[in-house]
Amino acid sequence: MNGDKNFKLIILASALVLLTIVFGTFITLFVSSFEVIHQFGIGFIIGESWNPVTQEFGALPFLIGTLITSFLALAISFPIALSIAIFLGELSKVKFFNSIINGAVELLAGIPSIIYGFWGLFVLAPVIRDIEMSLNIPPYGVGILTASIILAIMIIPYAASLSLEVINMMPENLKEAGYALGTTRFEVIKSIILPYSGSGIIAGILLSLGRALGETMAVTMVIGNSNMIPSNIFSPGNTIASLIANEFTEATEDLYLSSLIAMGLVLFIVTAVVNIFGKFVIRRFIPNIK
Amino acid sequence: MKINNLKKRKIKDNVFTAVVIITTLISTLPLTLILYYLIKMGVSSISWEFFVNLPSPPGVTGGGISNAIVGTLILIGFSMLFSIPLGVALGVYLSESKKSKFTGLVRISVEILQATPSIVVGIIVYLWVVITMGSFSAFSGAVALAIMMFPLIAKSTEETLKMVPNSIKEASFALGVPYYKTVLKVILPTGMSGVINGILLAVARVAGETAPLLFTAFGNPFMNMDISKPINSLPLLIFNYAGSPYKEWHQLAWGASLILVIMVLLFNITAKGIARKWKIKY
Questions:
Q1: Is the sign of the CA dihedral A12, A14, A20, A23 positive or negative?
Q2: Any CB–CB contact under 8 A between B165 and chain A?
Q3: Is B189 inside any structural domain?
Q4: Taking CB atoms and an 8 Å limit, are B151 and A18 in contact across chains?
Q5: Could you tell me what percent of chain A has a pLDDT over 90?
Q6: Between chains, do B150 and A213 touch, taking CB under 8 Å as contact?
Q7: What is the complex's ipTM, to 2 decimals?
Q8: What is the per-residue pLDDT across A126-176, written as a single tens digit (0 to 9) for each?
Q9: Which residues in chain B have Cβ-Cβ distances shorter than 8 Å to A271?
Q10: What is the pLDDT of residues A56-106, one digit of tens each?
Q11: In chain A, which residues have their Cβ closer than 8 Å to the Cβ of B214?
Q12: Handedness of CA A214, B107, A108, B43 (dihedral sign)
């Protein structure tokens, strides 16, 4: 029938639009960063200095900045997220507390990243500055640590809800067998639940990492935007995403623009790989993950 | 295991429980602090003028954010115009098509697009739309937001449509209704609440996005309703004013933050309400 044919063509067209966007993004980013690959080769990745005036473009400070902030944020948020998951999944049977914690987590997830950045800049950064003063280090306030804390707060809801879903998928009878042997709740969690859902939780961490790597606005506002390799966790730095946000509109020369686009390409590929792998693993625990 | 070990194990259990509860309570602290500051700093700057006036120059108190509110609404409106038809169509495609290499590729692409950092979406729309059109524009900003909403709407639509029972579909086929009419008049209306819920959540998600607008919508200190020109939005205004050295502008940014959070919350709550009220039950 004609109607059916047209209808199928229309929904197929939407799939083709999607493929065009995704592959088009990859190809466009790749072609646009060709100039910088041609000019610097591998030196682009390992170059330590980024100076648009002298046309020197090395990505290392930003790769390091991105990795440090992301992993530090994971280290801060992971124990907290796991606690929330265990609290909601195993400990609390009181509906009232559960709905409060649940509501708080959902609210936290709904707040836009620009608000986190703004809050971080005006509330958290002064606190960090005071701490730095008392430690006798240069009191920037903004820097790697501040960015990591904000990033940690932002990924807690995501990491917590993934861990909770994984823990909830655990078969009841394994837990009950544990309790029947007279083990305490701590032992059940430590020796039965965590080993069983371990790889699912790790996949959840991976997915959270994917979020942290690409987070732009909140980090941009509190990381200090210094294009040097950070010397310690208090020093200001820069991430790939915040570098692009800050310098993209200033980039007038082709090579400068090309370098920034190459950074975007790196970010695009890394987040895609991290996400596909994480989803692949976690799907064994949560088949219909969003 | 000795008997007196039991005491040790019980203590360990209690310590663990206490640690988990305390950590969970600590996790609510950031939210409380963020909301506290938003309300404390934001409420004082909100007045009638705040909604109808343009931002004042530095040094002048008062002033409003009318251009950013209008800009946000225009951006969201146009991005919905692009993303809803595409997203719903793709959702139908995903839920109706059989497993094949091609649909596998489409599925992975949905994941990739969903995971793409918003700043990368900004770059790509800059290269595709802004350079082609020759200037920053509200249109390019709406395209960037639409690209972010596209996979979200597609996925929520797919999930909803999968919940529509097969028997309904078969009943429609048995009556001789053609396939496309079955989808448009039976399956989609049955899952409508889920589809709308997904759309609202996607809107809530992109309403606060800043990064894709930096090099597309760009921001504009004046009122603008022409989609071929740069336009302001709440997140852009917050970003620009937070980074400025002027107290009055910080005050405007706090007010704008409060409005933005309330707006996002309203979208979320409405989505939840719709999902609860018209849930698919069979």
A1: negative
A2: no
A3: yes
A4: yes
A5: 75
A6: no
A7: 0.94
A8: 999 999 999 988 899 999 999 999 999 999 999 999 999 999 988 899 999
A9: 115-117
A10: 899 999 999 999 999 999 999 999 999 999 999 988 888 898 999 999 999
A11: 245, 248-249
A12: positive
Contacts of B111 in chain A (CB under 8 A): 275-276, 279
Which residues on neighbouring strands pair with residue A51, listed in sequence order? A56
How far apart are the CA of A180 and the nearest CA of chain B, in angstroms?
15
Number of domains in chain A: 1
On whether the CB atoms of residues A241 and B211 are closer than 8 A, the answer is yes
Is B226 within a domain?
A: yes
Sites in chain B below the pLDDT cut of 70: 1-4, 279-282
Q: What is the pLDDT of residue B203?
A: 96
Q: Identify the pLDDT of residue B280.
A: 60
Q: Residue A211: inside a domain, yes or no? A: yes
Which pLDDT value is given to residue B98? Answer: 84
Same domain, B159 and B264: yes
C-alpha–C-alpha distance, residues B111 and B273, integer Å: 27
CB B228 within 8 A of CB B137: yes
- Coil/strand/helix, residue B218: strand
- Put simply, whether B144 touches A (Cβ < 8 Å) is no
Instruction: Identify all chain B residues contacting A23, using CB atoms and an 8 Å cutoff.
Output: 109
- Among A279, A270, A68, which residue's Cα sits nearest to residue A287? A279
DSSP secondary structure letter of residue A284 = T
Q: How far is A112 from chain B (nearest CA, A)?
A: 5
Residues B35 and B127 grouped into a single domain: no
Q: How far apart are CA A12 and CA B105, in angstroms?
A: 13
CB contact under 8 A, B210 and A216: yes
Whether chain A has a CB inside 8 Å of the CB on B273: the answer is no
- Domain interval for residue B37: 5-43
Locate B213 and state its tokens.
Answer: 């607008």
Indicate the residue type of A230.
P
Per-residue model confidence as pLDDT tens digits over B217-260:
999 989 998 999 999 999 999 999 998 999 889 999 999 999 99
Global confidence as pTM: 0.94
> Would you say A188 and A175 are in contact if contact means Cβ atoms under 8 Å apart?
yes
The answer on B137 and B26 residing in a single domain is no
DSSP E strand boundaries for chain A: 50-51, 56-57
Residues of chain A with C-beta less than 8 angstroms from the C-beta of B154: 14, 18
Residues 34-93 on B with a CB inside 8 Å of A are 34-35, 37-38, 85-87, 89-90, 92-93
| Residue A27 within a domain | no
In this structure, is residue B282 part of a structural domain?
Answer: no
> Does A185 contact B26 at a Cβ distance shorter than 8 Å?
no
Give the helix ranges, DSSP H, for A139-193: 144-168, 172-180, 185-188
Same domain, yes or no: B111 and B180: yes
| Tally of domains within chain B | 2
Q: Which residues span the domain enclosing A119?
A: 33-282
Domain CATH for A183: 1.10.3720.10
**C-beta atoms of B211 and A241 within 8 A:** yes
Domain match, B119 and B11 both: no
Are residues B140 and B32 both part of a single domain? no
